[in-house]
Design brief:
It comes from Microbacterium thalassium. Helices cover 24% and strands 32% of the residues. Helix 8 packs across helix 9. It contains ten helices and 20 strands. The protein folds into two domains: 148 residues, Glucose Oxidase, domain 1, CATH 3.50.30.20; 219 residues, Rossmann fold, CATH 3.40.50. The N terminus is likely disordered. Strand 3, helix 1 and strand 4 form a beta-alpha-beta unit. The chain is α/β, with parallel strands linked by helices and 385 residues long. The longest helix is centred in the C-terminal third of the chain and has 19 residues. Strands 10, 11, 12, 13, 14, 15, 16, 17, 18, 19 and 20 form an eleven-stranded mixed sheet that branches. A seven-stranded mixed beta barrel has the order 1-2-8-6-4-3-9.
């Protein structure tokens, strides 16, 4: 791996005109996207391969990145999805027996333009005070563009609000992972950016996991005779995914058990009749505190979202779209954000965070058990009806 002190110059430009000069990291060229920060101290390979980060230039707040390299066992999907990567101090050597290559080489292989050697604390503080904003990393020949031209390119880039990115990350044809525990039945997973750890956790609960394209119809879902439906995490603005909301309403109308995470939580909220909104700078990292309102227990959870559901966090409310009573089940302790929904009259619930949590923590892994139990209970009710 080329030392950061020997690599080409690079510059990070934010849409407010702020500039940060550093060194090229990964591929050379230009990349545009929404600049966000992730607070996890570990698990950078899982972060990079999380499809929810499509369209985003990710800044790692942990200063030292790359020391464990990357391997062929830990990716959460088929490629690196971040639009760009920002680190302070990339490791000069790889020091892990599981590593197959350096992080720098992996970024270059997948064409990910990055920057190193900048004050990531300063960038994080700016995003926290001003909100997430568009930005770009310029390296190689692009680093020599005029400041005016670089800023023009940034300001002409699309904003995250209004973007539907599911089509860019979803599978094109269904993929099936057989159950690895006592079989319950087939589970339809709408792939909006699903992670491999999620598929593995669902298979371990007895589901034959059918990962289906985001273009799937209700007829295609019913054709696999599912015992339940699952909506995955994913990138983009939930307000730009009306087709997925309408599909979910068909699922709820069929009284199929439903579980959604992250983007799936936002889409359940919209299907029930609530709105969504863009957070100032979002939640990204593996150290976000969430309170389970039913138990009072505080869980440390893995997040990656820039949008949230707009619903009252206290009491039971009626679904504006006629799906009965609904309550907010989990609340974020940093900003009182809605972190989970539970329908009381239909078999449906969701959380805003990632219970599979590769590479940790695992406080919320029980939610997969809760989903399995909901499906089994629904099956028993139907048998006795």
């Amino acid at each position: 791996m080329t030392s950061q002190f020997q690599s080409d110059p690079a510059v990070l430009v934010l849409e407010d005109g702020t500039r940060y000069h550093g060194r090229a990291y990964g591929a050379r060229g230009t990349t545009l996207g929404e600049v966000v920060f992730a607070t996890g101290m570990t698990g950078y390979q899982e972060t990079l391969t999380d499809p929810s980060y499509a369209g985003q230039i990710v800044l790692q707040t942990a200063p030292h990145i790359g020391n464990t390299g990357v391997n062929d066992e830990d990716p959460e999907s088929r490629r690196i999805w971040v639009a760009g990567y920002i680190v302070r101090d990339p490791s000069r050597v790889v020091s892990n027996w599981r590593a197959d290559e350096s992080l720098d080489a992996a970024l270059e292989r997948d064409g990910i333009v990055g920057i190193s050697g900048i004050d990531t604390r300063a960038v994080t503080r700016r995003i926290r005070s001003e909100g997430s904003m568009r930005g770009a990393v310029f390296s190689g020949e692009a680093a020599a563009l005029s400041e005016d031209e670089q800023l023009r390119l940034v300001r002409e880039a699309p904003e995250m609000a209004g973007q539907n990115l599911s089509g860019a990350v979803s599978v094109e044809a269904a993929e099936v992972t057989p159950a690895t525990a006592e079989r319950i039945g087939s589970l339809a997973v709408l792939d909006l950016g699903v992670k491999q750890a999620t598929v593995d956790n669902l298979a371990a609960r007895g589901f034959d996991v059918h990962v289906m394209p985001q273009t799937s119809t209700i007829d295609e879902i019913l054709a696999i005779d599912p015992v339940a439906v699952f909506y995955s995490n994913g990138p983009g603005d939930p307000a730009a995914s009306d087709a997925h909301v309408e599909l979910l309403r068909s699922v709820l109308d069929h009284r199929l058990p439903f579980f959604g995470i992250c983007f799936g939580n936002q889409l359940l909220g919209r299907a029930l009749g609530f709105g969504t909104y863009k957070l100032p700078f979002g939640h990204r990292g593996i150290n976000q505190p969430v309170r389970d309102k039913a138990t009072g227990r505080v869980e440390i959870t893995a997040h990656n979202h820039g949008f949230a559901v707009d619903a009252p966090t206290d009491g039971v409310i009626d679904s504006p779209h006629g799906y009965g009573r609904v309550e907010v089940s989990h609340v974020g302790l940093n900003d009182d954000c809605v972190e989970g929904l539970r329908a009381l009259d239909i078999p449906a619930f969701s959380v805003q965070y990632h219970p599979e949590a590769a590479a940790g923590p695992h406080d919320a892994n029980y939610l997969f058990d809760r989903f399995r139990d909901l499906v089994v209970a629904t099956q028993e009710t139907q048998k006795n009806a």
